[in-house]
Each structure stands twice: as C-alpha cells, then as structure tokens.
C-alpha cells in the first residue's frame, strides 16, 4: 500500500491531544482547522490526504510513533472517533476487531 511518508504527514498536521484528540491542518485553505470527517457505522474519523481516505487514528499513530501501524488499531474505549494516542493500541494482525 502506497502511504504518505511520516515527514510529509508531519508537514500537513499538528496532533491535538485534548478531548477526543484531533489533527489540525498546518497549511492551505484549511490551516488551523480540524481535519477529517466522521463517517460509517460504527462512526469513525477519516481524513483525505492527496485524494485518498485514511483512518485518522492511523495518521495520529504514524506521526506520534514514527511509523505506520503494522497491525490493526484498537480503540480502547470503543469510540472510533476518539483518536487520542493514549486510546489507541496496536494489535497484531490476527488480533481483535480494530482496523
């Protein structure tokens, strides 16, 4: 899978660790605004980067941990819109229902 590099993501977003967490655009017409749209059932926060949709939690993981998650991410409180890094646990590929 062709994913954006970590430095590129870090140039686009600031990670905001308050409330349910968030990604804030660093530049462009949306500079200073929260990134992402809540979609799906169960609801999850997704962000478009260069025309492709990514789970916002995976971007948070990548820019804070320095690598894309190898396995799925578990939302410890069950809320897939809570993208605080302390709410995310990386599972091995065979584990759990996260994405």
Quick overview:
The chain is of the alpha+beta class and 99 residues long. Helix content is 17%, strand content 27%. Strand 3 and strand 4 (44-49) form a beta hairpin.
Give the arrangement of secondary structure elements.
Layout: H1 6-12, E1 13-16, E2 22-25, E3 37-39, E4 44-49, E5 52-55, H2 56-65, E6 73-75, E7 88-90
Describe it for me?
By secondary structure, the protein is of the alpha+beta class. It has a single domain, classed as Homing Intron 3 (I-Ppo) Encoded Endonuclease, Chain A, CATH 3.90.75. It has two helices and seven strands; from the N terminus they run H-E-E-E-E-E-H-E-E. The protein has helices at residues 6-12, 56-65, and strands spanning 13-16, 22-25, 37-39, 44-49, 52-55, 73-75, 88-90. A three-stranded antiparallel β-sheet has the order 3-4-5. A hairpin with a 5-residue loop joins strand 1 (13-16) and strand 2. The two termini are 15 Å apart.
Order of helices and strands: HEEEEEHEE
Q: What is the oligomer described by this structure? A: single chain
Just name the CATH architecture: Alpha-Beta Complex
Largest sheet: 3 strands, antiparallel
Distance between the termini: 15 Å
Number of helices: 2
The CATH topology corresponds to Homing Intron 3 (I-Ppo) Encoded Endonuclease, Chain A
Low-confidence stretches: none
Report the CATH C-level class: Alpha Beta
Number of strands: 7
Question: What is the strand arrangement across the widest sheet?
Answer: 3-4-5
Mean pLDDT: 91
Structural class: alpha+beta
Shape: globular
- Provide the gyration radius in Å: 13 Å
Strand content: 25-35%
- Proportion of residues in helical segments: 10-25%
Whole-number count of domains:
1
